[in-house]
């Protein structure tokens, strides 16, 4: 599809392709093996910059400093933000390749706005990165994926017919809920509201009543705990999700 789009538009008209390494709010969509490498190859062939949006997926969320590292792909630019300092102070940044950096040896970089490089925000970044290293946060995320979230969410998905698909990695997961496991009809319609959204509202309310505040989006429950969450707390939350999914199972047919 991307190749066809470039053929229609003309690759000379495309300066860059920007994508989330792992799509976040729209579904925790993990790219299949070879996809990001394929995008990289297309960009190289046509002289197009590849930009990885790591605002959500970066800084440990997917088990590496940047999610795209899991596929051993190097983009030309990486956008990052809240993950770099846990959101304590608003900050965002862009990492650029040596090739792009070299272009500013002979021209002025058009940056430097009022709050660029704010000392407070930058200090919070340094402190956060040091904590990542000192407390072994990336190793902890790898453990959570390998020994807790990965296998235990898979077991939950196997037990509940309302779980149409489980997706994720690191501490970045989604359970997609369905009415019918055969047809994969969504538990609630896209962009549902009011009575149409009641099945998901019921699940979220049941989680909150048991002390778990979950993020839901359309027919999905996202399981995205902080990178330093303890194994015990993760398992407590998973037990609650396991329990309340029986409410969704009751609405399943087929």
Report what the structure shows.
This protein has helices at 2-9, 35-46, 98-102, 119-134, 137-159, 198-209, 231-249, and strands spanning 16-20, 49-53, 77-80, 93-96, 163-169, 172-180, 185-186, 215-217, 220-223. With 254 residues, the chain is α+β, with helices and mostly antiparallel strands. The strands form two sheets. Strands 5, 6, 7, 8 and 9 form a five-stranded antiparallel beta sheet that branches. Helix 5 packs parallel to helix 7 (231-249).
Summarize the structure.
With 254 residues, the protein is an alpha+beta fold.
Reconstruct the topology from this structure.
Blueprint: H1 2-9, E1 16-20, H2 35-46, E2 49-53, E3 77-80, E4 93-96, H3 98-102, H4 119-134, H5 137-159, E5 163-169, E6 172-180, E7 185-186, H6 198-209, E8 215-217, E9 220-223, H7 231-249
Parallel strand pairs: 1-2, 2-3
Antiparallel strand pairs: 3-4, 5-6, 6-7, 6-9, 8-9
Helix pairs in contact: 5-7, 6-7
Instruction: Work out the radius of gyration.
Output: 21 Å
Work out the strand percent: 15-25%
Compute the separation of the termini in Å: 34 Å
Q: What quaternary form is this?
A: single chain
Features:
254 residues; alpha+beta; Aspartate Aminotransferase, domain 2; Aspartate Aminotransferase, domain 1; 2 domains; four-stranded mixed β-sheet; 17% strand
């Amino acid at each position: 599809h991307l190749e066809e789009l470039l053929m229609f538009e003309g690759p000379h008209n495309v300066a860059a392709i920007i994508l989330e390494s792992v799509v976040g709010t729209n579904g925790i969509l993990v790219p299949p093996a070879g996809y990001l490498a394929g995008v990289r190859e297309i960009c190289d062939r046509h002289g197009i910059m590849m930009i990885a949006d790591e605002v959500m997926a970066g800084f440990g969320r997917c088990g590496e400093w940047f999610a795209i590292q899991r596929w051993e792909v190097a983009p030309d630019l990486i956008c990052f933000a809240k993950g770099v300092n846990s959101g304590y102070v608003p900050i965002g940044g862009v990492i650029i390749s040596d090739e792009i950096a070299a272009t500013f040896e002979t021209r002025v970089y058009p940056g430097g706005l009022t709050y660029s490089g704010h000392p407070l925000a930058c200090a919070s970044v340094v402190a956060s990165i040091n904590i990542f290293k000192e407390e072994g946060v990336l190793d902890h995320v790898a453990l959570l994926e390998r020994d807790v979230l990965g296998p235990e969410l898979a077991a939950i998905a196997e037990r509940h017919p309302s779980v149409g698909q489980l997706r994720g990695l690191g501490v970045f997961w989604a359970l997609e809920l369905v009415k019918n496991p055969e047809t994969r009809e969504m538990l609630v319609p896209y962009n549902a509201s009011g009575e149409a959204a009641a099945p998901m509202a019921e699940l979220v309310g049941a989680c909150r009543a048991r002390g778990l505040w979950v993020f839901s989006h359309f027919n999905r429950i996202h399981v995205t705990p902080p990178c330093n969450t303890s194994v015990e707390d993760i398992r407590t939350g998973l037990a609650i999700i396991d329990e309340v999914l029986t409410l969704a199972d009751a609405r399943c047919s087929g």
